[in-house]
Design brief:
About 35% of the residues lie in helices and about 10% in strands. It is globular. Helix 3 runs parallel beside helix 5. It contains 8 helices and 5 strands, in the order ββββααβαααααα. About 20% of the residues are buried. It is mainly α and about 250 residues long.
Length: about 250
């Protein structure tokens, strides 16, 4: 018979992290099989016992080995600490208004808010009732949901003429009628985005993604959030996924 390198094992050896003990009738085991058992216990916890325990080795759980005097630690020596992905946090605590609450604004701020409501009404008329206009404006300027803004815009007041300028810009892109209404309802924050942000997004769609004309219009209507994408992590996540091009 040919010779094989062997390693000596103690009567009780932890060959598997899930509290399994290997007991051997003999005191010797081929080194190649010992390395195979260690590799399987390290990388393949779900491998069948029949593959991990050959060459006369019998495995049983630690509950049945209470009569043995040698014990091993219950801590898995091969366990690794899971990596926690980075998380984006709000810049400041935010208290969202309920649907029935209306921002109590006075002076120029109140006038700017009422002007924005009128601009929405003049464009959509009865398609958006008065209470729905309030909800759209609150979400757009950070008085409600922070799903998009994540603390970047909190309880802000629109600038006079800002809403009308954004709606006109969308119409120039060919988004009119029911499509314009769909965009506003899917992504109310669009009327609070700066024109620089929107122009940069459109330029990226036209240049990098080669979208023009009706194709560009349909892409925006289908996913209007792309007008607010201003982060491009390129695979190295910065924790601001709601504003990242990776979602396009």
């Amino acid at each position: 018979s040919h010779c094989r390198a062997t390693v000596r094992m103690s009567p009780t050896v932890a060959c598997h992290p899930h509290e399994l003990r290997c007991h051997t009738e003999a005191t010797r085991m081929p080194a190649t099989h010992f390395r195979q058992v260690r590799a399987m216990s390290r990388h393949d916890h779900a491998a069948p016992l029949s593959l991990r325990c050959r060459q006369g080795i019998r495995c049983r759980s630690s509950e049945s080995s209470s009569n043995t005097t040698t014990t091993t630690s219950s801590i898995d020596p091969f366990a690794t600490t899971p990596r926690t992905p980075p998380r984006a946090t709000f810049k400041q605590p935010v208290r969202s208004l309920t649907d029935s609450e209306v921002p109590q604004l006075q002076g120029e701020a109140g006038q700017a808010w009422e002007s924005a409501l009128q601009e929405v009404a003049s464009t959509f008329g009865e398609d958006i009732p008065e209470d729905e206009r309030q909800k759209l404006l609150k979400r757009a300027f950070g008085w409600g949901s922070q799903v998009y803004w994540r603390g970047h815009k909190v309880d802000e007041v629109p600038v006079m003429g800002q809403v009308a300028t954004v709606l006109e810009h969308l119409q120039n892109l060919g988004i009119v009628g029911p499509n314009l209404l769909k965009v506003l309802k899917l992504f109310p924050e669009v009327i609070a985005l700066s024109m620089d942000t929107q122009n940069a997004a459109v330029a990226k769609l036209q240049g990098e993604f080669k979208l023009q004309g009706d194709v560009l219009m349909r892409a925006i209507v289908r996913k209007p959030q792309i007008l607010g994408y201003e982060v491009d992590c390129e695979g190295s996540c910065v924790g601001d996924c709601n504003r990242c091009w990776v979602r396009f």
